[in-house]
Amino acid sequence: MVYIPNAYSQLDQWNSVMFLYESALKAINTKIEILNEEFIHMYGHTPIEHIKSRVKTPDSIVKKMKRNGYEVTIENMVEKLSDIAGIRIICQFVEDIEKVADLIQKRSDIEIKSEKDYIRHMKDSGYRSYHLIVYYTVETMNGPKRIQVEIQIRTMAMDFWATIEHSLQYKYKANIPDHIRERLSAAAKAI
Ligand code: 0O2
Q: Cβ neighbours of residue 154 under 8 Å, at least 6 residues apart?
């Protein structure tokens, strides 16, 4: 067997970092589920339709790093990319987005780094969503580790639109024809 010390240590480092992102996602996921249950307990209804979470794939991480002109290293990835761990909270109604965002912002166990309100300020593409970049501290055997997580909050209709538009970006290699752009824009306004 060929022993490659450097490659081994990099793989080890990668697995350790990914473990932290996975752990942060699990913890925040549980907190959001509990928040939803508390909402039902207090008001008899739930603002959250469902929650999805994912860790960005290695391929997607490398593409984003290169697109943004960063040297592809694990250190750079942790420092520069804020959406390696992502949670998407899907609400039924637009009003619920603000309620959920507000409740997350008030928590003492989640630190807000930044927010982007594409609900009030729709992107030119028609994209709508509320984004929070947060820090969550994972307690490990080697002490606390502060991890960035992106939380996207949007309605079912906004999520459907974003999924279709994302697929079209791939289909047309980021050059969506004008007539389809117009239809996407009309659909975004209708939503
Ligand atoms: P992917 O493949 O979904 O992960 P940043 O993430 O901060 O470096 P940016 O563009 O300044 O980049 O942040 P922004 O605008 O908050 O976008 C973050 C994520 O929101 C994107 O991640 C997309 O998931 C989503 N998003 C933003 N704009 C659009 C849009 O016009 N259409 C769709 N479908 N999704 C959008 P990534 O890494 O770009 O993409």
A: 88, 89, 90, 91, 97, 119, 128, 129, 130, 162
